[in-house]
Amino acid sequence: MGIPLEKVYGVSTFYAQFALQPKGKYKISVCLGTACYVKGSGEIFRKLEELLGITNGECTADGKFSLDSCRCVGACGLAPVMMINGEVYGRLTVDDIPGILAKYN
Q1: DSSP-assigned states of every residue in 45-81
Q2: pTM across the whole model
């Protein structure tokens, strides 16, 4: 392309739509915005990391799940919220996570 690598890297890391890591079949996004975080989304995120064995921006070895944090999905009334391929799960507790993941196995 004739474009320096640092320019390509700069653009690809600036825009949230681009990723340097592969995404899974099921893309999990956990809202860590203020309303969700106050209601416990940090614990939800940590539980997902524990169960999936990955962290923010990573994909499971089998390519099934990828995990990302986001700042707001516009569902503050349902806090804490996560989405899996656009399906919204709200008013979550840590105990809800294994059952939700089981739907996708």
Answers
A1: HHHHHHHHT--TTEE-TTSSEEEEEES--S-GGG-S-
A2: 0.88
